[in-house]
Amino acid sequence: ELISSLRSKLRTLWEERELVLSEARECAEQGEELEATVRELCKPNEFERYMMFIGDLEKVVSLLLCLSSRLARVQNAMRRIDGNTDAEEKQSLNERHKLLSRQREDAKDLKENLDRRERVVSGILAKYLTDQQLQDYRRFVQLKTSLLIEQKDLEEQIKFLEEQLGSLEKSIP
């Protein structure tokens, strides 16, 4: 029953992932249309700023999500430490925790810098785009970010359930 339930949950998550990927493709198409508009209306250096921001948006959000996920896994492993855990493993977990925490703080700084750059890009675009186009741009940035987060979350859930299912199937003769 448990294996059947896990498989069912996995199928549901795979379907959700397909929907999110479909939404991400639509978002990418919107991004391409927006890019063409910005290229047409803005000066080359302003267009370049826009493109750098959009490219960095995905990288910084993905980095933050990845580091947060890795940090959570290390924290979970640290919670499982007991009297039987050897000192070397404890030290390794503590060092990884410190490193990932520092890296996540650095990534948060990158995100703050990215937010400032977004305000600059938004100000540039406000000179050229109609109010509707500017709203479309802001919606695009928000949607791109939320889809990245949703995609990462689904990938984590799928990975977790696949590991559980694999362990369960190995444990049953």
Automatic annotation (TrEMBL):
Lineage, broadest ranks: Eukaryota, Metazoa, Chordata, Craniata, Vertebrata
**InterPro entries to which the protein is assigned, alphabetical:** ASD2_dom, Shroom_fam
* Species, as recorded: Chroicocephalus maculipennis (Brown-hooded gull)
Q: Where is the ASD2 domain?
A: 1-173
- Tell me what gene encodes this: Shroom1_0
Q: Name one Pfam family in it.
A: ASD2
* Protein location: Cytoplasm, Cytoskeleton
Keywords carried by this UniProt record: Coiled coil, Cytoplasm, Cytoskeleton
- This one is known as SHRM1 protein
Name a GO CC annotation attached to this entry: apical plasma membrane
The entry sums up its family as follows: Belongs to the shroom family.
* Coiled-coil positions: 90-120, 144-171
A Gene Ontology biological process in which this protein takes part is: actin filament organization
Entry GO MF terms: actin filament binding
Q: Which Gene3D superfamilies match?
A: 6.10.250.3120
* Superkingdom per UniProt: Eukaryota
